[in-house]
Amino acid sequence: MTKSRGWVLAVGGSGIVEDWTLRESLVTGSGTVRWDRLGDPGAEPVVLLHGTPFSSYVWHEIAPALAAAGYRVHVWDMAGYGTSGMHAGQDVSLGAQGRIFAELLAHWGLQEPAVVAHDFGGCVALRAHLLHGARYRRLALVDPVALKPWGSPFFRLVGEHSRVFEQLPAALHEALVREYVSSASHLGLRPATLDALVGPWTGEEGQGAFYRQIAQADQRYTDEIQPLYPTIDLPVTVCWGTEDTWIPFVRGQELAALIPGARLVPVPQAGHLVPLDAPARLTGELLTFLMA
Questions:
Q1: Can you tell me whether residue 8 is helix, strand or coil?
Q2: Is 29 helix (H, G, I), strand (E, B) or coil?
Q3: pLDDT of residue 163
Q4: Which of 56, 55, 79 is nearest to 216 (CA)?
Q5: Looking at residue 60, what DSSP letter applies?
Q6: Are 49 and 116 in contact (CB under 8 A)?
Q7: I want to staple 216 with a disulfide (CB 3.0 to 4.6 A). Which of 1, 38, 93, 108 is the partner?
Q8: Are 19 and 9 in contact (CB under 8 A)?
Q9: CB 198 within 8 A of CB 179
Q10: Residues 177-202: tens digit of each pLDDT
Q11: Could you give the C-alpha distances from 69 to 126, 136, 281, in angstroms and in order?
Q12: Which domains are delineated in the chain?
């Protein structure tokens, strides 16, 4: 498979972004971060955060739909993910990503955007808000990593032996990543979508980056902020795939109970990758939330 680390933001007649390249960049302490935006420059801003081991491509159906509905949609690849820079020794921890997100908001001049965050992106958005002073108009959390304990047996195994996994033959590594990414979907991913999500993790640079981000995953980054969830004072919705086998639906119930006024929205027939398993349903729920 040829490694693909870029797409062009070009919307086809279906309204879906057919090619996806993040055309802008910001140099941060953790390397160059790629970003882009869709929609009317004067429209109300919405920022989308992806999780791991994914990229902004998880939003390739939802981002243009939100832009078409009248929002200015910002997307970005976290440091060490997708089309953003990858290098040995890179800090791609949740601590670093939270600081980078606060820096990006300042770079964009966004003082109080609506934020939609999936998986690790949920922790990143929460840390930026609770620890780094980032302000949001509204916050939608989609199957976020937010509560202890987290990390599957596979995730822990790889984290403890990342140096060994980094030395896997390229074909075995790609097969592992394909199986791992596929397991996040309940309905199954289209081949082109799976290729787009796996591509950044192939090749020597991508293979090292894949195991680096797992090795740096640490529950302390959620432990630091979990006691602060009852202090969140803004509208929050928690959307959760009812068939999520990575983080079960009950965790969504627990999280919504900790955040004052948070609303829990079950998304049926969706696994952990809700933005790809149920893009139309999730878009509808997000629009309802954003317009409230």
A1: coil
A2: coil
A3: 83
A4: 79
A5: T
A6: yes
A7: 93
A8: yes
A9: no
A10: 999 999 999 999 999 999 999 999 99
A11: 26, 20, 15
A12: 27-151+219-291 (3.40.50.1820)
Tokens of 282: 């999730």
Contact assessment for residue 33 and residue 100, using Cβ atoms and an 8 Å cutoff: yes
Token code pair at residue 162: 């990342």
Tell me: the pLDDT tens digits for 208-237?
999 999 999 999 999 999 999 999 999 999
Residues 6 or more apart whose CB falls under 8 angstroms from that of 229 comprise 126, 146, 255, 258, 259
Are the beta carbons of 235 and 215 closer than 8 angstroms?
no
Give residues with Cβ within 8 angstroms of 154, minimum separation 6: 180
| Residue 8 CB contacts under 8 Å (≥ 6 apart), including other chains | 19, 20, 21
Strands (E), the chain: 10-11, 17-19, 24-28, 31-38, 44-49, 71-76, 114-118, 138-142, 236-241, 263-267
Give the Cα separation of 172 and 210 in Å (integer): 13
- First vs last C-alpha separation in the chain: 45
